Amino acid sequence: MSNISNEDDVYSTQGNSPLSGLSGAYKPFSSPYLNYDPGYIPQTQPEFIFLDGASKQRGRFELAFGQIGGSCMIGAGIGGATGFYNGLKATTLAGQTGKLRRTQLLNHIMKKGSATANTFGSIAVIYSAFGVILSWARGTDDDLNTIVAATGCGLLYKSSAGLKKCGLGGAVGLGVSLLYTFWNNRDKLTAIRSFNPA
């Protein structure tokens, strides 16, 4: 017979576990290869391994891939919905039905969806390129990089449409980046507004 007491038995059905009242339930397993109980380690968030001296957040270059892909998918969704609406209206006015109408609808969806996805993707690539270059040149990643990258993106994207359109594109990029920066720092702005030096 074993001399192990019930207190040392990790598989005992007794204990403070919420499952201890159920038949066949056991205590949380303690590893025999570790000198501590893994149950004491909080598992509230995933743990990541970083290189010594590396930043503990993803940089512009890592985020660029997700931004570009997400922009393409959003553009495809918006363009597809717009193409479906335009195709539905055009085929209704033309009195088309059956297979001909379905073919025309698909043509509208694919054409508009791919065009919008291309536009959104191009903007994301230009913005990400500016952001990566600024982060590398300045050695930091802050809100100034976001504002300058968005403004430069708008200027470059509309640079072939004339000086007026180029300036308008830069103004749109500046406005969108400022709104994003204010929204991203809304807690700091609230703290500044509520600060009372008296």
Automatic annotation (TrEMBL):
Keywords: Membrane, Transmembrane, Transmembrane helix. The keyword Transmembrane helix applies. InterPro entries: Tim23-like (IPR045238). It is found in: Membrane. Pfam families: Tim17. It is a multi-pass membrane protein. GO terms for cellular component: membrane. The chain crosses the membrane at residues 115-137, 167-183. It comes from the Eukaryota. This is Mitochondrial import inner membrane translocase subunit Tim23. It comes from Cryptolaemus montrouzieri.
